[in-house]
């Protein structure tokens, strides 16, 4: 079984963006030390254009596949990037986009959970990165095996929640915590089944 990992950036109060999903106010915490760590540990989560600009050729050791909702994918599309994670296998959940804008991007039109279960059942040493956003994470919440939460020392008060899901307690085990001098905290949790 391959793992589905929700690797996400959020505020102290658990928002992944402002009410529209914009997370740019958190970028100021992406300083040199933190960036060096992220690029070394999770280079596969750096968009392809960024990898090229930074000279990152490390394929990464965690993920070979990324899933995102079209709300998240549209951020790249709007600036003319049709395959933002071209170094990975890319899947985008959408009901409205009928044709894939890029041969590397597979669209999931229905049975999102079923498609994710198929991906998880494939053989392979690397896992599946759930990139977001909130709606798709809420729909896939029960398929998530691991959470990697990058918490920035900022509070929003309101905004886009990490999960667009209803109330239900779900338990996780804390596997690792990394603290950076600038107050960024990266926690890794496994799902308790
Ligand atoms: N902080 C972070 O690390 C981070 C990471 C990623 C994203 N984000 C933010 O998250 C925001 C996007 O989140 P969001 O909740 O608005 O959107 P989203 O979850 O990215 O995408 C939602 C869309 O996915 C499609 N969808 C949902 N469920 C589906 C299903 N079962 N089958 C097929 N398609 C399905 C629908 O597309 P259609 O409308 O086409 O039907 C829906 O409108 C962005 O603003 C981004 O900035 C933040």
From TrEMBL:
<feature type="domain" description="Bacterial bifunctional deaminase-reductase C-terminal">
    <location>
        <begin position="3"/>
        <end position="185"/>
    </location>
</feature>
<dbReference type="InterPro" id="IPR024072">
    <property type="entry name" value="DHFR-like_dom_sf"/>
</dbReference>
<dbReference type="InterPro" id="IPR002734">
    <property type="entry name" value="RibDG_C"/>
</dbReference>
<protein>
    <submittedName>
        <fullName>Deaminase</fullName>
    </submittedName>
</protein>
<dbReference type="GO" id="GO:0008703">
    <property type="term" value="F:5-amino-6-(5-phosphoribosylamino)uracil reductase activity"/>
</dbReference>
<dbReference type="InterPro" id="IPR050765">
    <property type="entry name" value="Riboflavin_Biosynth_HTPR"/>
</dbReference>
<dbReference type="Pfam" id="PF01872">
    <property type="entry name" value="RibD_C"/>
</dbReference>
<dbReference type="GO" id="GO:0009231">
    <property type="term" value="P:riboflavin biosynthetic process"/>
</dbReference>
């Amino acid at each position: 079984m391959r793992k589905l990992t929700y690797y996400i950036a959020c505020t102290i109060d658990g928002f992944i963006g402002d009410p529209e999903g914009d997370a740019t106010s958190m970028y100021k915490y992406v300083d040199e030390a933190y960036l060096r760590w992220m690029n070394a540990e999770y280079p596969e989560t750096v968009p392809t254009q960024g990898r090229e600009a930074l000279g990152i050729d490390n394929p990464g050791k965690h993920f070979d596949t990324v899933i995102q909702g079209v709300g998240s994918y549209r951020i790249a599309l709007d600036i003319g990037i049709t395959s933002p994670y071209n170094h990975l296998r890319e899947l985008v959940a959408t009901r409205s986009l009928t044709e894939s804008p890029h041969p590397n991007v597979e669209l999931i039109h229905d049975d999102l959970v079923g498609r994710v279960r198929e991906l998880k059942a494939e053989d392979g040493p690397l896992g599946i990165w759930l990139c977001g956003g909130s709606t798709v994470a809420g729909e896939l919440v029960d398929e998530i095996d691991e959470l990697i939460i990058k918490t920035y020392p900022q509070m929003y008060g309101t905004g886009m929640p990490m999960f667009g899901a209803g109330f239900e307690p779900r338990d996780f085990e804390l596997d690792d915590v990394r603290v950076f001098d600038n107050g960024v905290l990266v926690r890794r949790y496994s799902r308790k089944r």
